[in-house]
Structure formats: structure tokens, C-alpha cells
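Long-time lurker. I teach an intro course on protein structure, and each term I like to show students one example going from raw sequence to a predicted 3D structure in C-alpha cell notation. This year I'd like something fresh instead of my usual example. Would anyone be willing to generate the C-alpha cells for the chain below so I can use it in lecture? Attribution to the forum is fine with me.
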Amino acid sequence: MEDNYGLLGFKEVIIKKKDKMWKLKVENNLLFGRIESSFMESTIDFQKLGIDFNGLFSLDICTYNELNELHFSYKNNKEQIIYRCFSEKNADVINMASDELEKVTFQKICLIGNTVNLIAFTENEHTKKWRIYYCFKKEGIWSKIQIIDEGWGYSPGTCSIVAHNNYLYLVYQVYDNGKYQLVYKVGMENEWSERSIITVSEGMNISPSAVIDNNGNLHLVWLRRGDLKFKVMYIRKFKTQGFWLRTGWTKEQCISPQEGNYLLPVIYGWDEDIEVFWQDKDLIYSYLISKQKLCPVKNILVSKNGSSVFLNLEKIPGINLITIEPASTTLFLLIENSVLKNSNISEINNPLNLLQEKIEEQKAVIEGLETDLSEQKRKIKILWENEKLQETKIKELKDKLLKKNQEDILKTNKFDEKKIELEQEIDRLRQSLEAVKKINDELRERLPEKEKEARELKQNEINSKEFKSKEYPPSPFLRWK
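-- Reply from a regular --
Happy to contribute to a lecture. Here you go:
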């Protein structure tokens, strides 16, 4: 599922469900398929099922009304998702991306009855915005496409989706606030819950795989990245009184022996137990949850040349497959005691030889991851150097601010001294003003008396003149020269 090479990483895939068996292959970007009548070589020609094949293959088996129909989907080179039922003549083209800059990075189908549910992840390489789209096909009609989650930065990568009691349970990774969150949403057609956090860690939480047992309990495995390698993590959520609480997850535990180059964990539910499979670079591991027992898998059913894989989805005697995640990558290799007696498909005990081709591919992927890690370390070093440079600049700025603050303090002190001098001068002027006012008040009080004295003096002067005029009248004979 995670890579675009062929179907689930193989050139050919054989799927069996009860009385039906399908064989699919990809050649020159064309998808071919045919129904196999038995394990012997079929005489029926391959029919062309799809064109412009660009990987991201997904499949599911519809068991509604015991029809046992194969449904599949893939991405084409136009970033469209092609969906088809094997028995139908025409395919559906779904445009999940909103514009040409948005690329489909993951897609998956899951059937509930005869309703087809489609989940697609997209990412805009320019804006670094990711979205999760959902739509469903019911009674031959596709619903309106919904955006059920979106965010910025690292895209969620892949997801696990299982159906139970007409609800879909979607588990995926979100990067937020420098942490990697494993979250889940519950939905049905036009109703989806808000995302809830399962776990948070420093390392990536990728390749989730979920299963629901007979009691309705959700079991989940995923890969958590350590320094350079991965470890397989397990957690479960118990169903309480017919529903799941938002909390109630058990404490997560590491079920792998140590960190390693692990790939693609897959979890299955049987009548009596939950079993986990995951691939290492040289073998496949099996882990029984109830017994907490780890062992390498030996009985793997594949073709002789290692280029095709047999997916047996029928009930094995004594083992009842409850709810299996559809299209679960190459580890769809189911483990049986003995089912096939065919010259083309035989039982081999050495997984290293069987999966050598796939292992080489995954080694290349791991080398690519290590190269990416080296590049990230180089970028981190550059960021660290830039951080030191910024710290130096910040220190210089702090010193300048401190110096300016000290200068401002000196200026403030001088200002305070000048202010005190001015206040003292104002006090002196105020005292002088008070003295002047006092003198003015005294003069104002003495003014009436002085005015009276002035009037009396003036009157005396007038009286004196009148007296003189009467005492010495002027002579009529006096003559002024």
C-alpha cells in the first residue's frame, strides 16, 4: 500500500474468498484481472480493468448477501482515484483533490454492507497543507466529497480504517506542536466525530493497523520510530456498555523484541485471540496478544518466483476471521497449516528467500530514510549554528539596551535635580509673592485714610485761597503789567 510498485508491492496478487478467486496484475500502467476457476492455470484471458495505473492500490471484499464481490481502487496519473467492482464493466472516476497543486498521497476503500466508503489523503507541496477527504457510494450514487480533517506541516501518511456496527474507525498520525500524535475519528456517511488523541511521542507513529474483536474491543498496532529504527507498539480500547469512551485506552506496550528495520505491522482478530504480524528485513514475526508470545513465522504461502502473493481470505477450519482491515499491504500473507496443493503455489519455510525481492526494495527505502536522516541532521546543525548566531545578536542587543537604560537613568537623575531646583525657586517666588500681597493688603487698608487726608488737605487749600481773597480784595486801580 505504501509504495506504488505493482499491487501491494508485488507484480501479481491472487485473492481467494470462499468459492471465488481473483488474479490481478499490472503491466505497462494497465491493470488486468481474471477470475480463477481453481488453483490450476486458468484458460480465461485477462480482462483490462483499469488504465493509467499509478499505484496506491486498495481492495476489499463485499460479503453482503453472500455475494463475495471484489472491489478495488487505485490512483491514476491525473491525481484521480479510480474505483471499480470486478464484476461491473465500468469504473468510477473520483476527483478528490481540490486543485492541480493538491496531490493524492494515500487512499483506501472499506465496505459496510453494499456501501463503498472511500478515504483519501492529499497534500499541497507548496503550502504544506494536508487534508483527509471522505465520500461514499450508496445505491449506485456517490455522495458529496467531505473534508473530515486538515492541517499544516507533515502529512498523516497512511491510516487504518475498520468497520463495525455500521461505523468507520479511522486511525492516523498528526504532527502538532513538535509532537507526533496518533489520533482516531469515528464516522458514518455524513457524520464524523472530532479527532481524539490516542498517544503522543517524540518519534513518528506510522503504519497503524486496527482490528475489532467479537466483544467490540478495538486493538491497534503501529510502528514508532526511535533514533534510527522502529519498534512495534500495541494498545487496545475496551468497549463499555455498548460504546467506547473518549478515554479508556490501555497503557501502550512495545511487543517487538527490540528496535529494528520493521515494516508494515498487521493485526488480525480470531475467535480466541488477537495476532499481530510484522516484517523484518530477514523474516516475519508473529505475536499472540493473549499469550504475549513472539515467534518467527515459517509457513508462508507464496509463488515460487516470489513475484506474486496469495491472499487467502476464506475462513480457515478452526479459525474464524472476525474483522480484518482490508488491503493490508504485503502482510496479507495469511498463515495456514495446509491449504494449497498446487505446483504454481507452494509452501516454503524460508521467508528470507521468499521475500528477497521485497526486502531489497525495503532496504532501498531504509537507505533513503537514513539519507533523509543525515540531511535532517545537517539542517539541524545549520539551525543550531543560526541559533548561536541569534543568541550572540540578542546578547549584543541586550548590552545596547542596558547601556541606553543607564544613560536614561543618568538623564533622569539630572532631570530630577533640575526639577528640585525649580521647585525651590518656585517656593522662593511664592514667598516673595506672599510678601508683596501682604504689602498690597496693608496699602489697600490705609488707602481710605490717605484719601481722606488728601481730601482734607485739598479742602484746606481751597479754604485758604478763599480766605485770602476775602481779606485782601483787589484794588480797582491795580493794573497788571
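Some talking points for your students: The two ends are 149 Å apart (CA to CA). The mean pLDDT is 75.
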